[in-house]
Amino acid sequence: MGPFSLRNLLAAGTLQWNLSSREPICNHNHERDGWHPFSVQLLLQQTSSVEEDVFLRQLEFLIRHSFIFVTCRRGCLRKTLYARVYLIPYDLANVQGKLRTRDEATIVAPARRYMRVLLPRLLQHPHLWEGEECATTLEPQFLLPQNIDNRTMAEIYSDLPSPTIDAARLASSSESGWPLARSFLAAENIEGLRSQLYPYQRRSVATMLQKELCVSEILDPLYIPLRGLDGQVFHLQPATTELLRECPLVSTTRGGVLCEELGTGKTVMILSLVLATLDQLPSPEESILDPRTVLTPLSFRHFPFAAQSAARKSLQRRKGKARDAEERQIPSLVEILLNYIRVSPEKIGLRYQEEELEDRQLWDAIAANSPFYLHFNVDTAETRSRSQAANPGPRRVYLSSATLIIVPPNLLGQWDREILKHCDSTLRVLVMRPRMALPRVTDLASKYDIILMTHIAFSLESSKSGVQKLHSWAVCQCPGNQSSRVPNCQCDVRTDVSPLLQIRWKRLVVDEGHTAANTNTNFTPFAMLLSAERRWIVTGTPTTNLLGLSFGHVEDPQSQDPECTGESSRNTPEAQAAEAEQQEVELEGHRRRWTRYDREDLRKLSNMMTHFLGVRHFSAQPKIIDTHLINPLLDGEGPRPGAIQVLNQVMEMLMVRHRIEDVEKDVSLPPLTQETVLLDLDPYALLSYNALQASIAINAIDSRRVDQDYLFHPSNTALLLRTVENLSQSMFWHVDSDRMFNVDELVEDTEKTLHTAKERDVPLEDMDLLHQALHHSRLAAENQVWRFMQACSIDVPYRVYNMPLMIYQSWTRSPIPDAQSPDGLPLVVDYFLHSDRMVKMRQIVETQPLIKENQLVEWGCLVSAEDRRKHLLFLEFERSRKRSRHGNDASELAEEIFKVVGTAKRIESPEKLTEMRKELMIAQEKLRVAAEAEEEEAVADIPRALTEDHNSRFEPGRARMLASSPLAVVRVGPSASSKINYILNEIAQYSSAEKFLIFSKSPLSLAHVSEALEVIDVKYLQYTSKVPPKVREQLVMTFETSPTYRVFLMELKHGARGLNLVTASRVIFCEPVWQADVESQAIKRAHRIGQTRPIIVKTLAIRSTHEEVMIARRDMLKGKAARAQNVIDEAGMRHFIANPKFLPPPTTAVALDIPLINIPIFSPTPDREPESEEMIVEQPLTSLPPTTPPPRQIRKIGFEVDKMDNPPSSSSRATKVDGNVEDIPIPPSPNPKKRKLGGVRFVD
């Protein structure tokens, strides 16, 4: 029969040709299957097609070099030739390896190309295999699936199957991992775990235990199965077209990627894994050359047994010099036990016997007897018989049952709290706070179960990575303990090498482990140096496009109510065009071409496997990922057949995650509603936006869109990014105090610009665009109020109503309008104050409630003078930096930085920290008391010392005095930022019952929001890059526990990942987020397990700008294709920004109407006797409709705004004295003809 017997080959499929003549095409011999030998030369005579001629010659090459075997026969009508194709496996037996030694360049490489052409053409149908003519009318079936798989990496990731456990092995196996897995799946209690796991969490932990403890061999995931027509299954590597009868086996990795959906409890899963394997010691690193026996200081020095004697002899530096010649006595039973409980601590429960062992004076000896092994270099055994002069000797590696967990700095405190929440006190945890030094190596290896470190602290240890310094022939000579012969070793202290590198860790866990894919930092190289038996990456988004957005029911109110405030942006022409473009690819049956962004995701996945997880199959041959996995996916014609299946198998081998539908069977999160709110710009912000657009338009026309001066030229990427940032910032609030957006220069050069454009004969559409740009530049340049806003402050100005004119004049930075109507009164104009002035003004009135109008005027003059002095100092400082590398942007950048830093400093000021600590104490005391008594009694029992200052700001008498202030009727109206107006309305409406998370990528926008919250007197916390890490942890704890702080302002890049903020139920994004994984991570800070309220997410965008288009294109691309990292890299977004459109005057506006002085209402305490003065209760803010400078009126139960067309004839203010209404005279306005004041009255 021979090795090439047809039963040893894969019956792959058939080919067929229509014949033009009945001449014979075979020599009438018969092969083993009864068909004729295939003759390419005879068939070439009847072929007229060039393509078929090339294909037949390729077949001849493959037959000649034993890649395939082909037989043929005519059909019954003799018009069709059928050919059976058998594939010859590379591992065919009894061929002396000839199939594996074929020349790569001249034979194997061409054969790969030809096989890629052949395999997709092979038809698999039993009737065709028998050469039946009728089979030609049947639906074709191919060897390789012909269905087009246009799934993206995100869709492949989402389709991964949920973890499954081998039921047969689970029931019968006695390996250490299976009993633990059985206990998890049986919902048995986990010793040391306080919390109950959901069923899906138990399955995930059981799978992780299986991966860690049940190491086995699996089929190589780089091969896919192929079934022949005779039922045999062979294995094909799609990239190399290598076919094997037996699929190679690879060892499983003791670890992987825990990538459960965001908010599904990955932290508690890791803690459960730690508790389930609490006292397990890792095995020494595998070595063929050295036995690497597990030793202890006691056994190494004193035990006479063979393993210990061999270890001592291995340290003999000179051949023949015996160092183990001294007679060693047999160890006592106590010493044997001292050794045993350290090398086999599992299930002994040593931690529970500490007191008893201390009483017996054995605990110190046990603690000092740390297990270790001797680690020789690879060449040590080979050179041991030669001179040892160049041999550095072994290094001592300590074995630790601890888990080293590396977390982002902002999650260190959260992990600490989660451990306290889920685990009992038997778990020994070391939290490495900033600037803490690591303990000595033996303490680090033996005294802790978990070591928590930040990414930064871990990376800093890389400066002490000289592992070779640990190699030495020296033998410890330290004396023994007083109560035993265990050496009291003091010679293991090394300051030049990190203790982390002297330990063989049981487990290394990296939270938010997608950072492990970056090989350009110290983190991953140092992690590779670390010796860890089991490695886990914990992340909800392994790469940019691998994310889940579906856990928890997501509602889209826009699909139900298209007229709502957050109107849909998915029906824009741009969105429809982009979606049609994507659908065209699918409808035409083309394969989707994977892009460079897909390559980036694949590269990150590769780095995780090879550099961090150390998957043997890939780390031993790093190039194999490129040749066998990445390149087939990135083929120019789309992924090659089988390439996506290989990717799926590789991901399934490493990743532990449940499908969304399987998670939702066990746990249901509150509904998540996402809404896009489209707003119009305020008229003054509109001038800035159109001025910026004018600059972009004139640049495009002037540079003809090709020169290096063109903003979108490749050499101007940095400038373009800055311009897009300014454009985005202008939709929140942005000033250009130095250049005024170049409007003066553009207006001055109008004639020159138009003349140049006409000379160049620019197209009509560009001429129209140029006229529009110059028109909008002129509108901005001629608006004096806008110019003052640009020049006087970076802050957002607010409209104010009912303020006495003299006070306004002394406190405002804006010009005073002097245009008058025929009756001598000012025309309807806007009066603006900046937030810092209003807050300062309110602080003065609250500290001096009886302050007079003239005193407020004097205060205003002093504050204005001080501001001018500071501004002059700032300008002088900036003039000295004008020649710095920042160039003309120095002043603008410095002012923004000063503002952001100033806002952050307010967060870490002593006063703010004291306030936060007091609120934290109040919250903790409430929790403590509530745990001991009923909730109603608990609130009453809170120590008075903690709460006495909480409402002291509004004593009854002070409230009456505030009501008589000249500023009592002042109202704060809409600001010049429509986004701030919307945010303040939302907070005013909902903050009394719900907490807010407000995200922005711009620290400057968050600084504006923080000042707005100070204006409306709402307590907030801020989490940005300018806030020190030591303060961030306290911010999170305070926000989660204190009811006082209602808003958390979070910089997107710092606050979007890892934090648990379930006390918040409303999320606002100040601008659209292009990267869907970042947005999803931010939302999951609140929408996660533990959340009880429905989550409302609102994204603010300006109508008809790139923000609206960004949302449309992002939603269209979500889950369909890899997306550009930067907005300007995406073709649709780049096109929109490069073709500026000017916005018309706004047709809608966000109303805002709040009191400057928030005077609380009077309300008697129901459970106490009335006193001489009534209790004060703070009144929550309410959102009010826009009105023309609104007067106020007072109700018995609170203040209410009401429009009064005719104020009282005499200037008076009503208040309540002993239940009656009395009028208190109001000082007249300095110029009553120019200002109309509203009245205040008491309403029964």
Automatic annotation (TrEMBL):
Residues 557-573 have a biased composition (Polar residues). The keyword ATP-binding applies. Residues 550-587, 1199-1244 are annotated as: Disordered. Keywords: ATP-binding, Hydrolase, Nucleotide-binding. It comes from the Eukaryota. GO terms for molecular function: ATP binding; ATP-dependent activity, acting on DNA; hydrolase activity. Residues 403-560 form the Helicase ATP-binding domain. GO terms for cellular component: nucleus. This is Helicase C-terminal domain-containing protein. It holds the Pfam family Helicase_C. Residues 979-1141 form the Helicase C-terminal domain.
